[in-house]
Amino acid sequence: MQTGVLIYEDNNLLRDSVAQMIQYSKEYLLLGSFANVTQVEKQVKGLQPEIILMDIDMPGGVNGIDAVKKIRAFNQQVQIIMLTVFDDNGNVLDAIYAGASGYLLKKHLSGRLMDAMNEVLTGGAPMSPGIARMVIASMQKYPSHEENKYQLTSREREILAALAQGSGYKIIAAQYYISVDTVRSHIKNIYQKMQVHSQLEAVAKARDAGIV
After folding, report:
1. Beta carbons of 186 and 159 less than 8 angstroms apart
2. CA distances from 68 to 54, 96, 140, 158, 161 (A)
3. Per-residue confidence of the chain (212 residues) as pLDDT tens digits?
4. E strand residue ranges, 35-161
5. Intra-chain end-to-end CA distance of the chain, in Å
6. Which of 60, 69, 131, 158 is deepest in the core (most CB within 10 A)?
7. Helix (H, G, I), strand (E, B) or coil at 143
8. Which residues contact 138 (CB under 8 A, 6 or more apart)?
9. What's the gap between Cα 160 and its chain centre?
10. Same domain as 75, residue 127
């Protein structure tokens, strides 16, 4: 069964190029492609995508970050990959807190888009290298050391720390001699306790609270 994808991108050429990449793939089905997010709630509810590719800078008075907040108000499951031009964009952290699942620089789309979508569907948080560095630097700059804020167990803290280091589920399972399903169960509990819905947001909140 193909995975449904929505695109929100105001650049017509880029939007058409991404749409063609998805249409040529066997794994993904293009459900819609839009130049703005003015009808994002209606479109997401009606089309029910598994993945949304969301530009940050959008016309029409509502940007990509605002759109993510609107989507997360009624849908916690859809994976949202943000598309941006610059890896030093100050909006990156705002989008993570809003509920973004991953980040890609637009210049990397042709080579990394499919891998990023595959990654986000399996629990990963795809990010361009420059954005990953910027996120880590920002989290290290503003720790608040509220270590017991989320009442995580010692194992949950260990797994969260491994996620912060970029370890995948299989690597974490091997590191702690547990099954991948057990890792998934721990991560589900972490998400519930921290009231997040993505790896990026969990790591961001954990760094902000001084947990990792």
Report:
1. yes
2. 8, 9, 25, 29, 26
3. 899 999 999 999 999 999 999 999 999 999 999 999 999 999 999 999 999 999 988 777 788 989 999 999 999 999 999 998 866 556 777 788 888 999 888 888 888 999 999 999 988 888 877 777 777 776 665 544 444 578 888 788 889 988 888 888 999 988 888 888 889 988 998 999 899 988 888 988 888 887 77
4. 51-55, 79-84, 102-105
5. 38
6. 131
7. coil
8. 93
9. 16
10. yes
* Same domain assignment for residues 121 and 189: no
| Structural contact between residues 36 and 154, judged by C-beta atoms closer than 8 angstroms | no
Q: Are 173 and 100 within one domain?
A: no
> Per-residue pLDDT tens for 123-152?
888 887 777 777 777 666 554 444 457 888
Q: Residue holding tokens 């709630």?
A: 41
| Sequence letter at residue 61 | G
- The pTM of this model reads 0.67
DSSP code for 2: P
- Which domain, by its residues, includes 148? 144-208
49-75 pLDDT tens trace? 999 999 988 777 788 989 999 999 999
d(CA 35, CA 157): 41
How many domains are contained in the chain? 2
Which residue, 137, 171, 188, sits at the end of a domain? 137
